[in-house]
Amino acid sequence: MIPEHRLAVLLDQVQQEQVNECLYHNTTVPPSLYYDHTCEPDEFPLHSMVELRDHSDEVWYVDFSHDGSMLATASSDNSIIVYDTQRWKMTMKLSENSAMPDVQGICYVSWSPDDRFLLSCSKGNDLTVYDIQVCHVRD
Hints:
mainly beta; 2 domains; 1 helix
């Protein structure tokens, strides 16, 4: 028997695959199912709008929150910085202390589906979950 809402699930998968395959994808509008989706290269942004310079070393990973209101950056300086994407200002800086001092750096960050928690993974394989609502907010 066919599961309930199977057609809707398949159509969502087709839309997501079109977005994943679009080399210059730059829109939040879901693609239409009436035609194949492509974004033109001349519509892709080519100039920097803002430079974020709050880390003291290389940034290894960035991740936008699901609602787009925050950006988390992970760095080799063993810190995570969360930015407000409306003003592009730092809202918090999270630092980690590695159990292995010779292995420093945050390699990965990811938001929970409700954007309340931020998961980080360090180069030393330490996994940390931050409750963003509880963390100290910087001005």
